[in-house]
UniProtKB/TrEMBL annotation:
PANTHER family: UNCHARACTERIZED PROTEIN YJBQ-RELATED, UPF0047 PROTEIN C4A8.02C. InterPro entries: UPF0047_YjbQ-like (IPR001602), YjbQ-like_sf (IPR035917). This is YjbQ family protein. It comes from Croceibacterium xixiisoli. It holds the Pfam family YjbQ.
Length: 138
């Protein structure tokens, strides 16, 4: 049984979906793991993780517009300690989630043809985000 864990740090330029698939796949390949499960966990309440299409950029733009409609910035939130994008960011994180579990085999992520792993930054300003990556397998 092989287990390995690391914290990967990503600098985000601000709100958006930032593909991190190559970074995750590279760490997995360097680990020497063959078959098992990868767990990713975002250590933040205003950023999240998701798997979605990575071939058509319009998908990411549509997703971001949808999140803007569901959790718009503006008055009406009691919690605004860090500005008008603070509470909407927490809502968007709740909707998109903070962890993923992905199988791997042959040392490779078993993502579908058009799937990518995204770090969703829900705040307008740049941030440094931590993602805990843990593999368990052989």
């Amino acid at each position: 049984m092989l287990q390995s864990q690391t914290i990967m740090r990503f600098a985000t330029p601000g709100r958006g979906l930032h593909e991190i698939t190559p970074d995750i796949a590279g760490w997995l390949a360097d680990s020497g793991a063959d078959t098992g499960l990868l767990t990713l966990f975002c250590q933040h309440t205003s950023a999240s993780l998701l798997i979605n299409e990575n071939a058509a950029p319009a998908v990411q733009r549509d997703l971001l517009r949808w999140l803007d409609r569901i959790a718009p910035e503006g008055p009406g939130y009691e919690h605004d300690d860090e500005g008008p994008d603070d509470m909407p960011a927490h809502i968007r994180t709740m909707l998109t989630g903070n962890s993923l579990t992905i199988p791997y085999a042959g040392g490779r992520l078993q993502l579908g043809t058009w799937q990518g792993i995204y770090l969703a930054e829900h705040r307008r300003s740049p941030h440094r985000r931590n993602i805990v990556a843990h593999i368990s397998g052989t």
